[in-house]
Description:
By secondary structure, the chain is of the alpha/beta class. It folds into 2 domains: 5-224 and 305-324, Alpha-Beta Barrel (TIM Barrel), CATH 3.20.20.70; 227-289, no CATH class. Helix content is 39%, strand content 14%. It has helices spanning 10-20, 37-46, 60-79, 100-110, 123-131, 143-152, 173-181, 197-205, 215-218, 227-235, 256-261, 306-324, and strands at residues 26-28, 50-53, 87-92, 114-118, 135-140, 156-160, 166-167, 188-191, 210-213, 241-244, 252-255.
Amino acid sequence: xxxxxxxxxxxxxxxxxxxxxxxxxxxxxxxxxxxxxxxxxxxxxxxxxxxxxxxxxxxxxxxxxxxxxxxxxxxxxxxxxxxxxxxxxxxxxxxxxxxxxxxxxxxxxxxxxxxxxxxxxxxxxxxxxxxxxxxxxxxxxxxxxxxxxxxxxxxxxxxxxxxxxxxxxxxxxxxxxxxxxxxxxxxxxxxxxxxxxxxxxxxxxxxxxxxxxxxxxxxxxxxxxxxxxxxxxxxxxxxxxxxxxxxxxxxxxxxxxxxxxxxxxxxxxxxxxxxxxxxxxxxxxxxxxxxxxxxxxxxxxxxxxxxxxxxxxxxxxxxxxxxxx
Length: 325
């Protein structure tokens, strides 16, 4: 689909330019308890947009340290003449999340080029991010939420489709992308079981500008997870994934062996209440004891470094594009 860039705002064109400048139009999904500064740096160095969720830092002070580390490493890389992809910070904007204001102050200070929002309206961060020249994208799981984000003035959308790891959507990507493109010409990302270069190319064929990779990055050496998590990803397949609200009160995909180990029945009626108050990375929340994965988990056959994974993705992406010509 050809996008009329003349109708885009300056921040929307800026975001679109970020991804068209990359050889591989990929954003590393910001994964709770998985993504940290090391993973961000490895992704940016490999040529894809790196990201992490602010709550992964256990305290606001640690978040400041992580942001300082990312900015410093990027500056040092620039001094060495290295080209890194942009990076992104993901923020929870749900009303129960009580670190929001402190995190927004750090955003103003460290100026991530991209800020994404989840579990609420992007309107809460737009002015602060636009003030320093950054751009804002919003995760959405329905066309109705996409319309609300557009009305709020967001610069880009990520369609979270059926099969995404962690908090997931229920819509088919074909239908979802087509319907959103009827009212949105701006930058559009696709998330949900995207696991190889063919999937990235397919997202573009559907009219999206970039794709999100999540589950495959969990298995890399640079993620924050313990080795047993990586081993379970290698061992699991599509049949081992369960979508349930039983863990956090929000529909999410989890690996069945980890649910069984924690004594959670994915088919039971959910009694979990949506609550993002307190320090959610350290609090005794149910999600601390189970491991998420998307429906593309069957594509993980070994652990690797980020650089090795991106090389693999790039190779299969080029093959897919070449076959379509």
